[in-house]
Amino acid sequence: MKRDMNLIRHLLAYVEEQPAGSIVQQVTVPDGTDGPTVGEHIDLMIERRLIEGDVVDVNAPAFVIQRLTWEGHDFLQAVQNDTVWQKILGKAKDLGGSMTLEIAKELGKKYLMEIAGV
Predict the structure, then answer these.
(1) Cβ proximity of 50 and 11 under 8 Å
(2) Cβ atoms of residues 92 and 99 within 8 Å
């Protein structure tokens, strides 16, 4: 399985939209995304400490997400703007199509600062 940064961004935004204190056990995902892929990405997000939660069964997927972490909020804020995200994806394409979380976050912060005129 390849890591899908679009899916990670989508899942983080979905969790952020939920009311405070709620527990997420289902998510809406882009068409064509299968359950095991969602489960694996949620597991990666927990591993990277973007969210707090637990994956009971990756294939089902069966999971519980309690909340975004500080790091999850920081990453999402850096990449949430659609214009910024498209620039990040363009840069990733220039680099061969893949990008680490740290690079995406730093590019997002850079592009946001450019938009803000800082």
Answers:
(1) no
(2) yes
**Phi-psi label, residue 117: left if phi above 0, alpha if psi -120 to 50, beta otherwise:** left
What tokens were used for 62? 């069966």
Tell how strand 62-68 and strand 51-57 pair up: antiparallel
Contact predicate 61/44, CB 8 Å? no
The amino acid that residue 60 corresponds to is A
Which strand (E) or helix (H) includes residue 96? none
Mean pLDDT across the chain, nearest whole number?
Answer: 91
Q: Is-contact 72 12, C-beta < 8 A?
A: yes
Percent of the chain scored above 90 by pLDDT? 65
Evaluate whether 64 touches 54 at the Cβ level (below 8 Å): yes
Q: Where are the domains of the chain?
A: 5-69, 74-116
Q: For residues 64-73, give the mean pLDDT.
A: 95
- Partnered with residue 63 across adjacent β-strands are 55
